[in-house]
């Protein structure tokens, strides 16, 4: 409006319309006719028709409305309009369009400056991120930021001093400074920078004091750094804009870089301090609830006693068991029973092939008969030496015959007792050879059962006679059966790759329906302890053995 009035064009009002509310400036609401005409006129402005003219009302002496399209710095379209007082002529319209062209150029210049500003920030980030350490990156940042701020303030040779201070224990500490690689902590410059930085941290906002300016930098509401600038006569606003933008972009990178280079103990200490501050400080309700839940769990783990159990694989055995072995080498000729069959004492279990033994029996029987005949003849002839010799032959033949008959009798394997066949499935091996002493069948009595547990060697020292326990069978996992330890053997055995000892137990109360060979899991209660001790005992024992081995 000022440029138009200076050119001799009487401009009463101006308006700006855009979808961006920051660029939306309507005509005064008091002039209703002008507002309605402006609303209608701006709809006529299109890319094909960038300029539209109209009257504020139907009167010939009414103000002339001129509307044209513009482009905002962000690229969004907008419409600008002016109300010109009469008289109206072509020269006035030309002056308006020239002024609007100047306005478009000014907006594009602002957009160009903004883009150059962003490009300069990206270039600065590239230089900072290319450094090898956090301190080197911080030094590069303050040097380049100070030089940029001096250029923006149109004072390249000014005495602008820039200091970045890190906050430790709520107090600022000198870290890096522009054009300075090192500074005395007690120097006047360091002391003055620390004082204004401390004031900015206390007030939690920018502070300007004389020639100095300080900006606190925050992370999740906590002050982590402070940027201090000093210049004789005060820091110009253009320089302050550069400092704010640069600090907001680069400081998080420098902070995370610095934190990543801390040692592991410092990381742990800082994490512990942050956790304590969140738990006992204001806010952070989630942390407080989590700490309360953790304390409650720890209380339960350390205070509440529970049963300390030793868990072991379990098998059910008959109270009386007998093994039937092969009495001699031979071949299986007949199998009469299989595991799971009930048998009576003396009942045939299996039979070995006896054909060779029958031939041997016949041969020795014939030898006996011949020796008996020779003995009778010698006695009839009263030949004393022949009688002695044939008597010896007769005794030898009778002994061999008795041995053959005994072997023949042992070819039939019979049950030594009433009971259940637990093992010995030889049906598929009829005709196969067996060695003397080979275990053929296991017979378990059905008048009583006992529980046998395989307790690992790490737990056997805690198992004592009389300790109670509970067994759950594989076929009945829903039901627990009580038992009591009755015997702990001193002989170790390996089962499924685990070394352990045999522990026998008796039922408490009525025994459930059982069958020898049933398996399950048994738990022997060896005492009371807190949950933490129960859960960590295997790990603690393992660590003790490892330390014992390492320490020699």
Question: Would you write up a description of this structure?
Answer:
The protein has 552 residues and is α+β, with helices and mostly antiparallel strands. It has five domains: 2-116, Beta-Lactamase, CATH 3.30.450; 131-261, Beta-Lactamase, CATH 3.30.450; 266-303, no CATH class; 354-402, no CATH class; 448-551, Efflux pump adaptor protein, beta barrel domain (Elongation Factor Tu (Ef-tu), domain 3, Beta Barrel), CATH 2.40.30. 41% of the residues lie in helices and 30% in strands. The chain is built from eleven helices and 23 strands. It has helices at 2-6, 32-42, 90-129, 134-152, 188-203, 237-260, 264-280, 285-303, 355-380, 384-410, 531-551, and strands at residues 11-18, 51-55, 64-71, 77-84, 161-168, 171-177, 207-209, 212-219, 222-230, 305-318, 321-325, 330-335, 342-343, 348-352, 412-414, 419-423, 433-434, 439-444, 449-456, 468-473, 476-495, 498-507, 519-530. The strands form five sheets. It has a six-stranded antiparallel beta barrel with strand order 10-19-22-21-20-23. Strands 6-5-9-8-7 form a five-stranded antiparallel beta sheet, sandwiched between helices. A four-stranded antiparallel beta sheet has the order 1-4-3-2, with helices on both faces. Helix 3 packs antiparallel against helix 4 and helix 4 runs antiparallel to helix 6 (237-260). The longest helix is centred in the first third of the chain and has 40 residues, at 90-129. The radius of gyration is 53 Å and the shape is elongated. The mean pLDDT is 82.
